[in-house]
Structure formats: structure tokens, C-alpha cells
Design a protein that fits this description.
This protein is of the alpha/beta class. It is built from 23 helices and 20 strands. The longest helix is centred in the first third of the chain and has 15 residues.
Length: 562
């Protein structure tokens, strides 16, 4: 039976188990949308294409499967670019499908033509420009394989209009993949793992440093087992939050520029730092010369390009973190470090994570502490935008499971939180999904309220409103002597009136500490799309702060009150 290229595309996506596509139609994808009408795949119409990638990212992170997004050629494709780069930096498997002008028009500056294949080469794990409709089943199978094996990442498939409209004599599904140049290393080298076991036996102050790679590898049980077996404290990156339960006595929370003081100090004092699925990025290390000065550094990662890129390591191990830890656990015995554990307890006691309580003002940290308490007995997911609220959420969220904190880390993309919450809610309909955002980030994709309304999603949006770009203002406060420029919003809308324009949605406002608990309880239990506006001071800052050229032990702490 003959079918079109577009129908072959949809059949191939169905064969991959795709249930949802986030997209926005246009002229170059008309035949694809026509084929989608008869499909079991649910199409979610976003309000802007960048939101489609963020939603696909949120969906992927909670389901463990690649998220799929679809856009037309030209501006539809270029609107995907920031979202694709966001997924690339955070190693999220996303399949981005774009329409393209007909093959005979490529290179003629045709209407809505753009070289999205060339544009996205540096920000995709791989990409395709499809030349023949017969290639579509193979390309789709390869794309899904590439996106979710090895170090995960986005794959773009650009389909010219005449290719999607072409007729295939018959549809031949593809199940096997044979990519000669793509052979990820999954198992770590046995001798290197034995060397790590020996370093652990010799260490007196071991510390585990876990990143997003541990989450992507599904290695949370192995990280917990290793930490308890060798009695090593655990600190995580922003992307690693939740891979180790933060209510565990060995948890140090997040490290880095705005990490917990005790995590940063422990890194500077450990004698063995075991990096698992991390990039040693600049927001963690700050001054590389001063990073973990007393430690032998181990780096386990599935991507060999990451090892030694930013920090010289004493022991590199290339492989899947979960599989490496499985092998390692067979070689290490239980070990106690009473003096080291007591030292770490002292750091927690003497250098706690603190914020101001004077004056009776509404504190964002208090709101997030209370939110964390109220969510504790529920199945919950927090997404976050980028800014001060992101750091407060990371510090005070107290994450207990992987894939419960979804945020843009590597690229720091404002506008990620709300569309990611849409994708997360569709991927985990039973979960309570809360998007933590600020007035700046929210306005980048507040049109996605329409997407949430259309799909009857009871997402909760916790909006911190200080009428400023708070994190940029904070950077100007610390690093350019308080010369503020371009950071104040004087034209913010009335957010309560905005949410009232959407059917079956609810708006709640918090301006005083005593309103926090009752309002949050109401929002979390009303079964509706809800915007909770928290009116906070523009003087509120994120502490601690480590300046870029300093070591992790050279933090600026919260100033003492009184």
C-alpha cells in the first residue's frame, strides 16, 4: 500500500512509542499535520515554537523517553534554536522535526527558507536533511537511537516539503540501527575502576560530586549505595539535584557559586573528590586554580570529551555512570570516616544556609521552604525558570528523587519553566507540577497559559514579583558597585487580571508571611491552573555568593542582622 512521506514519518514516530508532539503548524509541514490527524499521537499546540522544545524537554525528563517537537520552516525553525541549545547543554533527548522548502528551491532564498541544518550543527548531537521519503523510517530510528544512547542530546530532522509529500510504494519499518561511527563506551575500563576502589580505600576525606549525568543514567540507587558503603558526603550540581535524597544525613545539597556553604567548604577540604556525570563547569568550580586543592580528582563520564576539558583529573573513567558504579560496588567494602563525618557535621552547624527574618517582609526562601513541606507527601515536580528564584528553589526545595527539579542549567534560558511544566504535567498527569518563576522569566512565555488551559492542565505557577530582573540586578550590586542599568520593570501587567482572562484558571496573591501556608494549600488542592503571585522586595539577594575569580571557600555570606 502506497503512503506519503509524511505518513511514513508519523508511522515511524508511532513505532517509537511517541504519544505526544509539541508543535506549531505552517506551510512547509501541511502534509505532516494532515497525516497527524489520523494518528494516535496527541498534538499539543504551543503559542511559540521555543516553548515546544522546552515542553518536549520537560516531558522527556519525567518520562525517560525522547520528547518530540514540530515546527515549520524559516521562523518556525529558528524559533526552536534556543530550546534546542538548552536541551543540548543539559543533555536532554529531544527530537526536533522541521519543515523545509522543496528540494528544488533550497538555496534560492525562497519564502520561509533558512538553513536550519547548518544553523543547528553546533547545538545538536546530530542532525539530518532528508533527501528522499524512503529514508524517513531509517532516519527516525537512527535519530531516536542517537538521542537517548551515550550522552543524551537533541537530534534535528529537516524535511523538505516535496519529501513529506512524495509517494512511497510501501512502508518498510526499520528496527535495527548500524551506525559505524557511533559506538558509545558504556562499561568503564576494569583497571581504572580497580584504581578508583584503591583510592577509596586510601582516602580519609572522600566526597561524591554528582551531576546531571547521574540523573540521565538512572544511577540514583547506585549513588546512594556507594555513599552509604564508604560513608562519603554527597554534593550535587544544579542538574544533579534529587539524585541523592536531601533529607539524608550525608547530603550536602548543591555546591558552587550559590551552593550551600558547607558543600563548598567540604569540597575545599576533601582529599578525594569523585565526580560522577559532571562537567566541572565554571558555576561549580569558579576559580579552577583554587578548586578542591587538597583532593585527588576522579571523573566518571560517558562523554570522553568532557574529561579533562575544564579540570585536570587524577583518574579518568569513561563509561555509563550507573554501570561503572555497579562494577565499583563489587570492589569496595564498608568504611567509616568518623573524623571526616564529624568535621562535615561541624560545617553544617557553623555555616548553615541562612536568610533574613527581620522586618516581617515576605521572604521567597520562606515560601519555598513552606512549599517543600506541603509537597512532601505528594508525587511532585518543580520546574524553574532562570534567575534568583531558580537559586532559591535549588537551595530550599529539598529534593528527594531524581527528575523532580527541571530547569535550564548550562544555557541558563529564561522562559524555560512554564512550558517545561506543561510538558512535565502531560508526561506525569498524576503529579503536582509547580513552575517557579520570576516576573521577568514568566513574561517570556506567559502565552503558554493558553496551552495549559487548552489541555486542562492543573499546573501551579509560583511567580516571584519584584518588578526587577533580580539576578542581573544582584550581579550589578556585587560586581559593578551597584550601578543599576536596564533591570527595572515599570510596565508589568496586573498578573491577577491576566490569569483571570483564562477560563477555569485561578489567581492568588501572597504579600505577607502569614498568607503563605493557607494560599499554598488552596492552590495545591484546587485542581486548577493557578498563578500564585508573591510580592517580594527588590532588595532580596541570593546568598552565599562566590565571585568568579575566587575559590569556593571565599564566599560572600548573608550579612548578620542587627
Amino acid at each position: 500500500m502506497s503512503i506519503t512521506g509524511a505518513e511514513a514519518l508519523i508511522k515511524s514516530l508511532e513505532a517509537e512509542g511517541v504519544e505526544v508532539i509539541f508543535g506549531y503548524p505552517g506551510g512547509a509541514v501541511l502534509s505532516i499535520y494532515d497525516a497527524l490527524r489520523e494518528s494516535s499521537i496527541k498534538h499539543v499546540l504551543v503559542r511559540q515554537e521555543q516553548a515546544a522544545v522546552h515542553a518536549a524537554s520537560g516531558y522527556s525528563r519525567v518520562t525517560g523517553r525522547p520528547g518530540v517537537c514540530l515546527a515549520t520552516s524559516g521562523p518556525g525553525a529558528t524559533n526552536l534554536v534556543t530550546g534546542i541549545a538548552t536541551a543540548y547543554m543539559d543533555s536532554i533527548p529531544v527530537i526536533a522535526i522541521t519543515g523545509q522548502v522543496a528540494t528544488g528551491m533550497v538555496g534560492t532564498d525562497a519564502f520561509q527558507e533558512v538553513d536550519i541544518f547548518g544553523i543547528t550543527m553546533p547545538i545538536t548531537k546530530h542532525n539530518y536533511l532528508v533527501q528522499k521519503a524512503e529514508d524517513l523510517p531509517r532516519i527516525i530510528r537512527e535519530a531516536f537511537h542517537i538521542a537517548q544512547t551515550g550522552r543524551p542530546g537533541p537530534v534535528l530532522i529537516d524535511i523538505p516539503k516535496d519529501v513529506s509529500g512524495a509517494i512511497l510504494a510501501q512502508y518498510q519499518p526499520v528496527t535495527k540501527v548500524d551506525l559505524r561511527g557511533y559506538k558509545p563506551t558504556f562499561r568503564g575500563h576494569p583497571s581504572q575502576i580497580r584504581n578508583l576502589a584503591q583510592l577509596i580505600r586510601e582516602a580519609e576525606k572522600p566526597l561524591i560530586y554528582a551531576g546531571g549525568g547521574t540523573v540521565r543514567a538512572g544511577a540514583h540507587e547506585e549513588v546512594l549505595a556507594l555513599a552509604e558503603r564508604i560513608n562519603a558526603p554527597v554534593t550535587t550540581t544544579l542538574q544533579g539535584l534529587g539524585v541523592f535524597p536531601e533529607n539524608h544525613p550525608l547530603s550536602l545539597g548543591m555546591l558552587g557559586m550559590h551552593g550551600t556553604p558547607y558543600a563548598n567548604l567540604a569540597v575545599q577540604q576533601c582529599d578525594l573528590l569523585i565526580g560522577l556525570g559532571v562537567r566541572f563547569d565554571d558555576r561549580v568550580t569558579l576559580s579552577v586554580e583554587h578548586f578542591a586543592p587538597n583532593a585527588q580528582i576522579v571523573h566518571v563520564d560517558i562523554d570522553p570529551a568532557e574529561i579533562g576539558k575544564n579540570v585536570l583529573v587524577d583518574l579518568p573513567i569513561v563509561g555509563d555512570v550507573r554501570l561503572v558504579l555497579e562494577d565499583l560496588l563489587g570492589l569496595v567494602e564498608e568504611k567509616e570516616h568518623p573524623e571526616w563525618i564529624e568535621e562535615v557535621r561541624g560545617l553544617k552547624k557553623n555555616y548553615p544556609l541562612t536568610y533574613g527574618h527581620a522586618g516581617g517582609d515576605l521572604k521567597p526562601q520562606f515560601v519555598l521552604e513552606k512549599l517543600s513541606e506541603l509537597l512532601r507527601d505528594q508525587d511532585w515536580i518543580i520546574t524553574s525558570d532562570v534567575g534568583q528564584h531558580q537559586m532559591w528553589a535549588a537551595q530550599y526545595g529539598k529534593f528527594l528523587k531524581p527528575n523532580t527539579f527541571l530547569t535550564s542549567g548550562g544555557l541558563g534560558t529564561m522562559g524555560y519553566g512554564v512550558p517545561a511544566a506543561v510538558g512535565a504535567q502531560l508526561g506525569a498527569p498524576q503529579a503536582t507540577v509547580v513552575a517557579v518563576t520570576g516576573d521577568g522569566s514568566f513574561q517570556m512565555h506567559m502565552a503558554e497559559l493558553g496551552t495549559a488551559t487548552e489541555n486542562k492542565l492543573p499546573v501551579k505557577i509560583l511567580l516571584f514579583n519584584n518588578s526587577y530582573l533580580g539576578m542581573v540586578k544582584q550581579l550589578q550590586h556585587f560586581f559593578v558597585e551597584g550601578r543599576y542599568s536596564g533591570v527595572e520593570f515599570t510596565g508589568n501587567p496586573d498578573f491577577m487580571q491576566l490569569i483571570s482572562a483564562y477560563k477555569n484558571a485561578c489567581g492568588l496573591r501572597i504579600s505577607k508571611p502569614e498568607e503563605v501556608e493557607p494560599v499554598l494549600k488552596e492552590a495545591l488542592n484546587n485542581g486548577k491552573l493557578t498563578l500564585i503571585e508573591c510580592v517580594i522586595s527588590d532588595q532580596e539577594l541570593v546568598y552565599p555568593v562566590v565571585p568568579n575569580d575566587m575559590g569556593l571557600d571565599q564566599m560572600i555570606f548573608f550579612p548578620q542582622e542587627g
